[in-house]
Model the fold of this input.
Amino acid sequence: MPLSCAQCEDDTQELYRRGLCERCYLAVRLRALLDDGTGTVREDLRAFVDGLVAMPDPISGQKWSTRPHVQRMLRTLATYPGPISHEVITELERSATGDPWRSCVTC
Ligand SMILES: [Zn+2]
Done:
């Protein structure tokens, strides 16, 4: 009998890590990177996290989220002292062209 994901209880796919499927593990990872210091993701970034978690290939999201410059951007966004705008994102992603970042934020 296949094991089910500890979070979504899906038992139709292989578990990825820590008893979670790929998608749930990506969600945990992104929420940790975007933790604003209170153990949660700030309100104006929650749709962004949801959009990334819903991507067709969560493994791509995993790989993207392990890149050092992406992790720096996410941590900066998590505690950015003001509303997140496209100008803020443009400034932060200057060296990160070609990432799924922009398309996920603007969709
Ligand atoms: Zn799951």
Summary: Residues 29 and 66 are 9 Å apart (CA to CA). The pocket of zinc ion is lined by residues 5, 7-8, 10, 20-21, 23-24 (CB under 6 Å). The chain is about 50% helix and 0% strand.
